[in-house]
Amino acid sequence: MKRILVTGASGLLGLNFCTFFCQKHQLIGITNRTKLKGVLFQTVACDLLNEDPGEMLDRFKPDVALHCAALANIDECEKFPEKAAAINSIYPGRFASAARKRDIKFVHISTDAVFDGEDCGESGYKEDDTPNPVSRYAETKLQGEINVLDNDPEALIPRVNFYGWSTGGSRSLVEFFYNNLAAGNQVNGFRDVFFNTLYVHELADILDEMIGLNAGGIWHVFSAEHQSKYAFGVSVAEKFGFDPGLVRAVSWKDGGLTARRSPNLIMNTDKLQTLLGHELPGQQKCLDRFYQDTTAGLREQIRNCVCPNQERNENGNQDR
Ligand SMILES: NC(=O)c1ccc[n+]([C@@H]2O[C@H](COP(=O)([O-])OP(=O)(O)OC[C@H]3O[C@@H](n4cnc5c(N)ncnc54)[C@H](OP(=O)(O)O)[C@@H]3O)[C@@H](O)[C@H]2O)c1
Questions:
Q1: Fewer CB in a 10 Å sphere around the end CB: N or C, the chain?
Q2: Taking each helix axis from N to C terminus, what angle separates 229-240 and 173-182, rounded to the nearest 10 degrees?
């Protein structure tokens, strides 16, 4: 059992990680505007930007700091670049420095969006390929990686992309497809945007494994398989018994998006597979597990973590 301080504990990744691992680890979840209720781990609400990371670490004395908090909405980052830089770039560097001084393992969550998605080569983007961010979000996340490694060269930086159930019910791509398809609405799915997305509980398992192995540096933590967002929508429809014909194949160029997106984010996971010594989950395995968790009531469990009288800070889907 480890004592893990998780920031962004009300977010899609943080809350699913904490809900999943609250029996295995001793968790302290930091939230900001969203107050959690009925969860089986300690929670503390604060704005990290008003919080000295050293004092926070001295107060909670974790073995590991898992930093999931971010401004992760791409369009919000375009609108509020200074806020995006503060939480996505500057704070992670300060947090990493404070963790290193206290010999606390620092884990900083980053993104596949650091690449421009123009040419990922035959085998997908590798960890040492040169990033080229195309949005403010991606720029600030890349600068976050640099600041973290400058301050703590042994920090672990997983680049990720994932889906699952969120408190507001519309944070991730799977929720966009599920909600619309369940209501019988036609939806657009990008046929020319590719990703190696992971179900968030598969991601949580791998992060836990990597922490156990004391991995450091940048890692691509993705599914072994890529697919288009259109194919993902169709597979969600098929799995849940909705009409796959409701998913319309369109180009992202016709999608009316505010910020530019990286279209071809096929990621190479060879380095991670060698470290772990086992296969990484494919798309079907992820979707099967998501389906099982949904039928077992995870959607409601996550939704019920939020106080009913509270306006949830709903970020919306970050990259449709
Ligand atoms: N979702 C994806 O597919 C995806 C893809 C690539 C990378 N990532 C990365 O994965 C990480 C987690 O993403 P997510 O989707 O779980 O994000 P999310 O659902 O948008 O949650 C963001 C979390 O950060 C917290 N937060 C934001 N500003 C804060 C502040 N000033 N002080 C304290 N807490 C603050 C939020 O707290 P409140 O809600 O309580 O205000 C929330 O818990 C991020 O680093 C993101 O860049 C996500």
A1: N
A2: 50
For ligand 1, atom 24: residue with the closest CA: 69
**Ligand 1 proximity of 69 Cβ (cutoff 6 Å):** yes
Alpha-carbon distances, residue 218 vs 108, 127, 140, 215, 272 (angstroms): 10, 6, 16, 9, 10
What are 19-51's pLDDT values in tens digits?
A: 999 999 999 999 999 999 999 999 999 999 999
pLDDT of 318: 43
Q: What is the pTM of this model?
A: 0.96
Instruction: Please check whether residue 104 is in contact with residue 54, taking contact to mean a CB–CB distance below 8 angstroms.
Output: no
* Span from the CA of 315 to the centroid of ligand 1 (angstroms): 9
Q: Hey, what domains does the chain have and what are their CATH numbers?
A: 3-169+196-226+265-281 (3.40.50.720)
Tokens 């606390």 correspond to 104
Residues 263 and 252: beta-carbon distance below 8 Å: yes
